[in-house]
Give the backbone structure.
Amino acid sequence: MVSENVNGQDVTEQYVDLESQLKNLRAAESQFLELMKRSGSIADVLAVQRELVQTRSQIERILGQMKYFKESAAMSSLTVNFSTDPSNLPVVEKNTNQWKPWAVVKEAARGLLDLAKSLLNVLIWIVVFIPVWGLVALIIWRIKKHYFSGQIKQ
């Protein structure tokens, strides 16, 4: 069985977007701080403070995402597993008709091993069935002995 599984995610664009958003939010934060210094009424101060809190919240969220991306990249891994079944190895590469003697030797060795395995399997079957064949032979011998001994006496 041949299978391939590739997983990956490029977050470079997202990271660059987060950097630009962070830059803009920090600029807005600076402007809100300047407005805070110039505000006169309590209502104005509270409105600017609300905007400042929202901006800082967005900055923290973006910093968290950036930290996650950095740590994910630092902890990333690459795992490669190769497996081949020797009996499925190609003898001649596809798309070429070039003769490869070493590939023929490997194919012949595999054929020899397959023959040896088949012969051993047959031998195992014979050994396992010897008691059955022996029992059948004994029954046939007894029947013949009983049948022929009865004909001689008559």
About this structure: The chain has two domains: 12-74, 99-153. Residues 12-74 form one domain.
